[in-house]
Fold this protein.
Amino acid sequence: MPGFSGGGVGGGVGGPAPPRPFRPSRYVPVSAATTFLVGSTTLFFCFTCPWLSEYFSSVIPIYNAVIFLFTLANFCMATFMDPGVFPRAEEDEDKEDDFRAPLYKTVEIKGIQVRMKWCSTCRFYRPPRCSHCSVCDNCVEDFDHHCPWVNNCIGRRNYRYFFLFLLSLTTHIVDVFGFGLVYVLHHRQQLDTPHAAVTMAVMCVAGLFFVPVAGLTGFHMVLVARGRTTNEQVTGKFRGGVNPFTNGCLRNISHVLCSSQAPRYLGRWRSAQAVDVQPPFLRPPLTEAQLEAKVLDNGIQNDRHSTRSKSSLDQMESQSADAEPPPPPKPDLRYPGLPRADTEESSLLTEAPPTPSMYKYRPAFSSPGRNHTALTHPNKMIRGESLDSPSPSILHSSRQPSYRSEPSSLDGATVLGGGVGARRVGGERGEGPGGPGGTAGGVSGGMSGYSLTGRSYTSYPSSLVLSTGGSRSSSLRSAHTTHNPLATLHSEGTTDTSYKSLANQTPRNGSLSYDSLLTPSESPEFESAAHELSPLKPRAPFPSATITGQSEVALSSSTPLQGYTSPFLSAQIAQQREGQLLQGSATFSSPHRAYLRAVSPPPLSSSGPPETQHLLKHNQDSSFRALRNPSSSSSSPGARSPEPPVSPPPRGLSLSKSQSYTGEAGPQHKPRPAGGGSVLGGGGAGGGQQAPQSTSRLVLANHNTSKPGGGVKKVTGVGGTTYEISV
Amino acid sequence: MAETHSLQDMRQQAAVAAKVFIQRDYTNGTVCQFQTKFPSELETRIDKQQFEETVRTLNNLYAEAEKLGSQSYIEGCLACLTAYTIFLCMETHYEKVLKKIAKYIQEQNDKIYAPRGLLLTDPIERGLRVIEIAIFEDRSLTR
């Protein structure tokens, strides 16, 4: 969009949006608005004002001119000013997130949990109050709405001008109408003159526009006083709860009107990096633990890690309570295939723990090719996988033997990068301190700590398959991890278990079925499923979405799960619920639930609909896992066999999970007005109900996040994604 | 040996080995603050105190930029009165502080981070979402 802002225009920094096709239809409302505004006012000045200035005083036209200029200035600013577009994130920022990051990340703002969604177009987690405008194809800071009358998004930088435009326009309309009325009343006998006729026409236009404009002005006055954006108001984010972004009426108003102009992010002058970085580099003195940890290992460093974690824990008094033991210093050995270890998500990185195979998929919405390649490229997965030695990625699940042989060589990379993939999964310190003890502490707290506190995943290779997925979110829900190593994987913040990479994935061949995952006899299918996964082709998400939605409805109605049956409403309700839940309870059903739920159709079936149905079916299934109740009342044809957890299936599980996730994520990712916050339905009901079982543990990894015994709300988002929130 | 090695290295800039991203701290709302948590990757590269000091200073600077003070009031009024044409000639308060921040980061890089093989990137280039710290590989040391 045209960028006009006070500052200088310079060499562009950051990634501006790619050029969009020219759509003349978008310019119709703004042209009409401009025409009416300028045209009517001009007529008013030409026909009505001369008489007014003679009859009354010349102050009237001057006053009207001032108001009109003010209106016009605000209109231009609202139209041409960059609303606060975020530049696209650079490649290395999310490198490690690619397959394993959850779709949502939760942060706590003034005590209230707020979700940040992964934007696959812009490649970052949207800051709070940021939203992606589908018209402009940009993430906008403090997104209010996209206004067609100015053909621009209204966001942080130009909200003030938009608001003042509304105020001044209302005033201007009132003035024009009022003075026109005065004129007409004084010329009742000369209404056939052109001046009077024009004045009456202008009055009609003014009167016509007054109602909607005044209504909108009043609406925004309320929003400003409450410190909300249109987006938040319309999606009902804070309907039932507290708005964490408000600072009181007066402060909100002064923030809107009196704060300094926010800076532009795009099109800035980028200062040349004049810093020369040359070795040798200074080093801080190393502690003994660090020296010890320098030895390259394959990520299975129990003692060192615990030592390290202790020392680092002591050192960490930083705000974030994410006290993960830091990874050992990266050795020079670097995996060639691992260019960098980006720690976008968790600064506190963990050493290369074996990554659970749960992957958070986060395909690039706008670059399906890239994602596609990434997802399907075995190397990438392998790399990620190898980081977590025991945890095969979804693709890898079928290649477990070879996967196992890789870690040693790849661990260096992991360590180096802080475990590119592994990190995200949550600093699983894999074999480290093992067990709940070590990591529980680490997990708590920091929102950035997606790392799962290291749990010894090695003992549960199969479980790792699923565990990783939730890693990112798991950290905060450390409470659950104690009894279940996999539990740590719960995505800490993510209420829904969707993964970023799946966000844009369309449903894949539903050849993996959840049932098949659980039954060892099905394992060969995992192999095939893996292959199917590879040549992933994004499909239109809508069909699956609709199916999912329908199935969802059917499912929810037939299950005892609480939830909403209307996919549309559910999104809004989900928003509300979410707000409530966020405030009320910190735990959400395991984020991984979503992909668990996405489990699959009966073995051998590869049709889309059955898959989605199964997805839904599993949605609830996962929740009732503990009950072993195949209460899949969904209409899916294949009866789901009660899940007997079996170890081999983990691979398949991950496979299916990823698959199903993709399916779920697909529809979900589509921008939907009401479903902005829709979350992938977490499979299953409250996590607390799931009893850890060998294989079910894998699946349940995510489910166990919720507090035991907590009530569970099943919320359905638009597109049929559902998730359970434990209350 | 090390010396000659480093002399050879002097001819070209070290390569980036890894990047650490310091995320925003949203606990106080959408005010621009960054997490002061010390990332583990920097453990061997820089002192924790130094790092936290840098981030805290940055946070303070950003808080100053977003402060609702007399300067911003005056600026707003002036802008309204001049139909926002004042923005063509005057630099806003926020921009002034951003310049200060850029200078501070440059100075920190020169004095503290570059000698340690690190490089801070001005967060404004990333939309004020992250502070990117590039970790350069240390070829002169064998580990």
